[in-house]
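sorry for the late reply, my laptop died twice this morning and i had to redo everyting from scratch. anyway the thing you sent over, i finally got around to it. pasting the sequence first so we're on the same page, its 78 residues, then the predicted structure underneath. double check i copied it right bc i was rushing
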Amino acid sequence: MSGTERSLRVMVEHWLAPDPAKGVRITEFRNRRSRRECYVCVETMRAAGPISLFFFRHQDGAWRLFPPGPERPAMRTA
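ok and here's the structure:
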Protein backbone atom coordinates (compact mmCIF):
# COMPACT_ATOMS: atom_id res chain seq x y z
CA MET A 1 0.00 0.00 0.00
CA SER A 2 1.50 3.34 -1.00
CA GLY A 3 1.67 6.42 1.23
CA THR A 4 -1.19 8.12 -0.60
CA GLU A 5 -3.50 5.16 -0.07
CA ARG A 6 -2.85 5.38 3.67
CA SER A 7 -3.31 9.14 4.02
CA LEU A 8 -6.02 10.60 6.22
CA ARG A 9 -7.43 12.54 3.27
CA VAL A 10 -7.94 9.38 1.23
CA MET A 11 -9.54 7.59 4.18
CA VAL A 12 -11.95 10.48 4.82
CA GLU A 13 -12.93 10.66 1.15
CA HIS A 14 -13.40 6.89 1.00
CA TRP A 15 -15.49 6.46 4.16
CA LEU A 16 -17.38 9.75 4.39
CA ALA A 17 -17.58 10.84 0.72
CA PRO A 18 -17.96 14.49 1.75
CA ASP A 19 -19.73 17.04 -0.43
CA PRO A 20 -17.01 19.49 -1.59
CA ALA A 21 -19.40 22.41 -1.03
CA LYS A 22 -19.96 21.44 2.62
CA GLY A 23 -16.46 20.18 3.35
CA VAL A 24 -15.31 18.41 6.49
CA ARG A 25 -14.16 19.54 9.89
CA ILE A 26 -12.05 18.03 12.62
CA THR A 27 -14.04 17.93 15.84
CA GLU A 28 -11.47 16.16 18.02
CA PHE A 29 -7.74 15.49 17.84
CA ARG A 30 -5.38 13.73 20.21
CA ASN A 31 -1.69 13.00 19.82
CA ARG A 32 -0.04 11.51 22.90
CA ARG A 33 3.45 10.62 21.83
CA SER A 34 4.34 9.10 25.19
CA ARG A 35 1.54 6.54 24.82
CA ARG A 36 1.82 6.34 21.01
CA GLU A 37 -1.83 7.30 20.71
CA CYS A 38 -3.06 9.46 17.85
CA TYR A 39 -6.61 9.85 16.58
CA VAL A 40 -8.81 12.34 14.77
CA CYS A 41 -12.59 12.70 14.70
CA VAL A 42 -13.80 14.02 11.33
CA GLU A 43 -17.33 15.28 10.68
CA THR A 44 -19.23 16.17 7.52
CA MET A 45 -22.83 17.15 6.82
CA ARG A 46 -25.27 14.92 4.97
CA ALA A 47 -28.91 15.42 4.06
CA ALA A 48 -29.92 13.37 7.12
CA GLY A 49 -27.60 15.38 9.40
CA PRO A 50 -23.98 15.30 10.53
CA ILE A 51 -21.91 12.13 10.36
CA SER A 52 -18.58 11.61 12.11
CA LEU A 53 -15.91 8.94 12.23
CA PHE A 54 -12.79 8.41 14.30
CA PHE A 55 -9.56 7.60 12.46
CA PHE A 56 -6.63 6.09 14.36
CA ARG A 57 -2.97 6.33 13.36
CA HIS A 58 -1.09 3.01 13.48
CA GLN A 59 2.63 2.26 13.90
CA ASP A 60 3.10 1.82 10.14
CA GLY A 61 1.79 5.36 9.55
CA ALA A 62 -1.57 4.24 8.16
CA TRP A 63 -4.90 5.71 9.29
CA ARG A 64 -7.58 3.15 10.08
CA LEU A 65 -11.07 3.04 11.59
CA PHE A 66 -10.03 0.73 14.43
CA PRO A 67 -7.54 1.59 17.18
CA PRO A 68 -4.15 -0.12 17.20
CA GLY A 69 -3.80 -3.14 19.45
CA PRO A 70 -1.77 -2.91 22.63
CA GLU A 71 1.94 -3.55 22.40
CA ARG A 72 2.78 -6.97 23.74
CA PRO A 73 6.13 -8.23 24.97
CA ALA A 74 8.04 -10.13 22.31
CA MET A 75 11.14 -12.30 22.27
CA ARG A 76 13.25 -13.64 19.47
CA THR A 77 16.35 -15.68 19.08
CA ALA A 78 19.38 -14.88 17.03
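The chain has a mean pLDDT of 86.
thats about all i looked at so far, will dig more tmrw
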